[in-house]
Design a protein that fits this description.
coiled coil, mainly alpha, 87% helix, 197 residues
């Protein structure tokens, strides 16, 4: 084997090493989010240093990753500062007063929702009762119509019956008059003297 071939083998091994190292960095970068980007910085830098020692120029990749980690560090600092500010605001008296007021408003809202729910339920029950009363009113109207019809029939029958005594009284007077006439005629017959002379 010649020296040239040996260098070729070493270069191929270096190339394979660098490609494998880059594949590992890519795998780590795929799982990277803005919240955990700074946590992988040390691991990736160790791999980059190993890659750099193999005689391959990876400075553009190093620059990109350095920029990424600087941005991640800046993001972490900004997020930490914001978190501190949020804690400070949450501890401030105006925030506590606003939170207390919000809690009171939420309690009042809950009470009103509960009251509204009770009123809504009462309204539903009242609507159901009105519906039942309307049905009963319809039945009562029919019953009233039937009773009025019966009353009307009874009044008509009463009128016919009340006319009967009047007719009977008239007939009675007529019979009485005929009786008197008959008695008068009978008396005349009894008193009649037959004169055959």
């Amino acid at each position: 084997m010649s020296i040239f071939d040996g260098r070729k083998i070493v270069l191929t091994l270096h190339k394979d090493f660098i490609l494998n190292a880059w594949a590992k960095i890519q795998a780590k970068l795929e799982d990277l989010t803005s919240d955990n980007s700074s946590s992988l910085q040390f691991e990736i830098q160790v791999i980059l240093e190993e890659m750099d020692g193999k005689g391959v120029d990876i400075s553009p990749l190093k620059d990109l990753l350095t920029t990424l980690f600087e941005l991640a560090t800046s993001y972490d600092q900004a997020r930490s500062t914001l978190s501190d500010k949020v804690v400070d605001v949450e501890k401030s008296q105006s925030f506590l007063n606003a939170k207390k007021h919000l809690d009171l408003v939420l309690i009042e809202k809950g009470e009103k929702v509960e009251k509204l729910s009770a009123i809504s339920q009462s309204l539903k029950e009242a609507k159901e009762k009105v519906k039942q009363l309307r049905a009963l009113r319809g039945i009562a109207k029919k019953e009233v119509e039937e009773i009025e019809s019966k009353v009307s029939s009874a009044e008509e029958e009463y009128r016919r019956c009340s006319d009967v005594p009047l007719a009977t009284a008239y007939d009675l007077a007529d019979v009485e008059m005929k009786k008197q006439h008959l008695e008068a005629t009978l008396k005349n017959l009894v008193n009649y003297n037959l004169c055959l002379d």
